[in-house]
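User: Predict the complex.
Assistant: Input components as received:
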Amino acid sequence: MAIDRGLLRYVAYTTELLLLAAAQSTPELIPQTLGAKPLLLVSAALSFCAVENATASMILGAVCGAATDLAGGGIGYYALALTLTCFFISSMLGSRFRANLFSLMLFSSAAVAAVVGGYFLLFRLPFGADCLGALFPSRYLPRMALTYLCVPPLYGFNYYLKNFIFKNRG
Amino acid sequence: MDKYKKQSRIPLIITLIIVSVMGVLSQSENSPISAAFSAAARGLFSLSVQAARQDSPSYEELQSENKALKSENAALRSQLTDFLETKSENARLMKFYGLKKKNPSYKIKPAKVISRDPSDDFGSFTLDVGKAEGVRQNDPVVTENGLVGRVARADSCTCLVRTILSPDTKVGAAELKSGETGIVSGTAEFSADSLTLMKGLKRNCGIRKGDLIVTSGMGGFYPPDLIIGRVTEIRFNAFEASDCAVIEPLDDIERLDSAAVITDFDGKGEVSEKNGD
């Protein structure tokens, strides 16, 4: 009986996301660099945009966002932000730009700044203006940089999964 | 192209609706989404925490260890495993024995830290105890050294803890020698250095560097006399025209691997007028 390779690919993606969610939230598994840790699920969501079509990227983005939100208590900001961001980037890469690493990194730079920076503006700045001087340079800039740097390896991994391991025949 | 755009909008709208509905449902502590995530998180993160805390030995070390293990008797190995597990558990529980002995009215639930919110800047963490163990929202969370936070949200098997570094946490506090009282709450400025702040002190108050700050017990949320931390600096707050004390908690809150929830204590929920004006 032939097993649908597309289905297996999504099983592989699900396993990947579970491992990333565990790695992201497990204390002391990933050491802090420059006072912050990367948001691996945000990087993964962005990496899918250059590998999958708009609908699949959007759903994977929503799942990544929901998993990030649930670690903090409830689905909310990241689920909505990554749903919209992934849909937009994937649509662009599918129509007006070439879906390659260069284009992805170009869009990811803006996307990481918008998603992580948006969280800061909505949920940290209301605590007071001192957040801007205290938290943004010490926590958010390193978090943005680390999240951005995790996009290429995850893109490479997902590209390899789709085009070499689970490539549809014919 | 237009047809493609119209077709691709439908899944976007459907996904946004699903995400919004799930978002609304997940805000309730009794929602099935929270319960399912809580159960899954407890299992998944317990495994990953165990894996993370193990050292990664080299291949040669693993080989020699494997040889040594094979030579051991199976029954002895099993006994040794049981003994080590019990010893580790005892060491964890022993930390809270002193606290319980000193305060017999405390009902303490020891727990392990199973995950940390990656997007939180104030050291929030999740413990592997929940409503099933009697944990409720706003229960105090302590270590053997004192208060570390409060339960912000209790699910069936896990609970989310907001630490004393967070501006969301406000604790009635006092300094024992001078009798000065104030409110301890985190700020963005100090949380990056794992420090918190005691606000609302009188100008030129009697608090000095090195003094211990404890919970006042007023308000009924926290039991009295739990240590919050040690004063490292006194500052003048020009906006409030009052002094504030910078406090260093006795624990490294960002690296805690276990804590305990006080689910009940004498005076819980009662508004005390001790030290009150």
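Chain A has one domain: 5-24+34-165.
Let me know if you want any component modeled separately.
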